[in-house]
Amino acid sequence: MSEKELDNVTGVETTGHEWDGIKELNNPMPRWWIYTFIVCCIWGFIYQFLYPSWPLINDYYKGYFNETQRDIIGAELKAIARDRSVFTERIKDADLVTIRNDNSMFEFAQAGGKAAFGDNCAPCHGTGAAGFVGYPNLNDDEWIWGGSLDEIHYTISFGVRGVHEDTRLNDMPAFLRDELLTKQEIDDVTTYVQSLSDRTITSNTAAQELYIDNCSTCHGEDGKGLREFGAPDLTDAISLYVTDRDSIIDIISYSRGGVMPTWRGRLDEATIKSLAIYVHTLGGGE
Amino acid sequence: MANETDNAATPNSDFQKGQIERAKVEAVNKAAGRSLYAPRKKIHPQRANGKFRTIKWFMMLFTLSIYYLTPWIRWDRGEGIPDQAILIDIVGRRFYFFFIEIWPQEVYYVTGLMIMGGIALFLVTSTAGRMWCGYSCPQTIWTDLFLVVERFFEGERNARLKLDKARWSFDKLFKRVAKHTVWILIALLTGGAWVFYFSDAPTLLNQLVHNTASFDAYLWIGLFSSFTYVFGGIAREQVCTYMCPWPRIQAVMMDEESLAVMYRHDRGEPRGPHKKNETWDNRGDCVQCRQCIVVCPMGIDIRDGLQLECIQCSLCIDACNNVMEKVGRPQGLIAYDSLKNFERRKKGEENRFRIIRPRTIIYSALLMIVSVFMLYTLMNRSELDVNILRDRNPLFVQLSSGNIRNGYTFKIMNKSTSIQKYSISAAGINNIDVRIDGVKEYTENGDPIVSVERDKLKSIKLYISAPRSELPADSKDITFTVKDIESETVDIQTTSFRGPKT
């Protein structure tokens, strides 16, 4: 169409395109919109030049800046480690009581310990450190190996029945399997052990003698346990395993013992110290 | 397309020699044929003289003084706390306003202030139209300021129109460069003043002078300077007409009794040129001099009626009053008036200005309620704030003695200006043992005492153990009382103490 045609209603020029009698009005895009669009297009090309953009046959175009997210993350992680090293260096060299009493170090160790606990300890001890059957609750005031900062630090460092030569090691005999006691004797001792923590159960002197002969070396004559042997207190309300009669008979007959890994070598010293601080402040620290 | 030259409405015969200045113009944004697609036409408002212009000069002086001087007001708050009267301390997460110090969680005070501002705006609009737009909006103030500069370098309206059309010459180049340079300087001063609200002003000024300020400061100065330059110098009326939502909202705030700058068409029409000694009978007072159009910064013709574009700056009132004086007619052909008054005059009644109406009463009442509420909360603002988080993992711990222990994290905020000691006591369960690691001080009742530094939040871990026998169900309420020992301010909170399922 060579002639300009004006729409009657709006007074706007038509484009000359017609579909079933409907004509298109020639309302051009706003100028600012066009300019913005053009600037965006130009920017698109600049961006492709500056940053990784095009796949090549064996490689890809790396861009003028040669930037990769992987490198950025790496650099950021290094920067974080460098920032933290102020504290980690100090924590590594300081003794635990000093860390506990120094506000800034304590807060850092507390936070770092919590994170490390979640990563390394939570699978067995639980995210809240409440433990499971066979895995001790770290919140309470019962400690098999001791709940002071140094004892906790030692346990974490070397583990229990771990691979290190200094690892915590306790080995309760399997009284039935090793034929140290008969089934009847085990039954009697079980009654005695139950009576230690439950006043409603009464035992007899024969059973007490059996206990003293076989168990008191480690658990103590009063049943309160001995930490140097890692022998738990049998008189209190806390037990590592289930406390019904059959379970106790089972433990005495066949023995039991979990394993805690040796963390020295797997975690750095600052992290282990942070963990010791964190566990100590869960509420049961001595 | 509107014609630049005059159309039939303004034949040459209109321009008789007379004592009043006549302009041969159409309003740039005249109501008829207004199009969203039309390209922008530059507006060159002439300077008005009169009562309202004077008020506007004072408003400009007043608001600019507030803007530039406020950050330099000092307010002593004691050692270690900023002494700037109004300071938005983003890094320190505090908002200082004279005697008030607001923490981030108290941002509702700021919300309250904004609500008050909003209602005040409604009230003013329903009473007297767009007072805010016309007199105190930064957009208006800075545009006015930029116009002063433009007028200084390029002359009055006609000179500017001529300069626009003129070919590029040294003179034109000089005028334009000078104008834009001063604009940019003003913009930089504006953006520069803004950052002082967010940092200690003297320190920051010193840093800016020695070019050692933080990147953020330069970024914000740059941002605000460019916006000032673009909005005040270049975009001007476009900001009000196309960017600002307020012109659209204000229409619903107004009613037929609201005052607004209006052309009294009942008096002015039929309009037409008037020769000296001609009779005023059977004609309106409008002499078609178009001075109202010439001074309008929004490029409208006020005689088209109330328009969205009109910021009600009242400059057309000044322009018209001057003309009316010269032709010997009463002032107020363009004046603050209400729609209702048009009806009243039609019926032969007197003009009335009803400021007290249900609408203004409601807005005033709302404003009062919010103000009183804000004042009340501000006066009763506690300087102690306690949040208690119950340990959930584990919910409770069984101790070797058979007792049940629960852990709580106390977050104690000391909003006062000195170090404070707080005693913590628990009630609701008998025979409990309260333990906080590291506490050495206790009250006479044996409650532990913790101290929190001024203006700080302290997190405290508290352990409560109770015999199993005190816990008949698996949960029992426990009430903690945190008491400021010196001022006896108390914060009481109830939470639960949990044990095994029975």
Describe how the helices and strands are arranged:
The complex is a heterodimer of chains A (286) and B (502).
Chain A: E1 14-19, E2 22-25, H1 31-50, H2 69-93, H3 96-101, H4 103-120, H5 122-125, H6 149-158, H7 183-197, H8 205-214, H9 216-219, H10 245-254, H11 269-280
Chain B: H1 51-69, E1 86-89, E2 94-97, E3 100-102, H2 108-128, H3 131-136, H4 138-154, H5 157-165, H6 170-195, H7 201-209, H8 215-235, H9 237-243, H10 246-253, E4 260-263, H11 265-268, H12 291-295, H13 315-327, E5 334-337, H14 339-346, H15 358-379, E6 384-390, E7 397-398, E8 404-414, E9 420-427, E10 433-436, E11 441-442, E12 448-452, E13 456-466, E14 475-484, E15 490-498
Helix pairs in contact in B: 1-4, 2-15, 4-6, 4-8, 6-8
CATH class of the largest domain in chain A: Mainly Alpha
Q: Which H/E pattern describes the elements of chain A?
A: EEHHHHHHHHHHH
Rg over C-alpha atoms of chain B, rounded to the nearest angstrom: 33 Å
Number of helices of chain A: 11
Oligomer: heterodimer
Tell me the total number of β-strands of chain B.
15
- Would you identify the regions of chain B where 5 or more consecutive residues have pLDDT less than 50? 1-17
Assess the beta-strand content of chain B as a share of residues.
15-25%
Strand content of chain A: under 5%
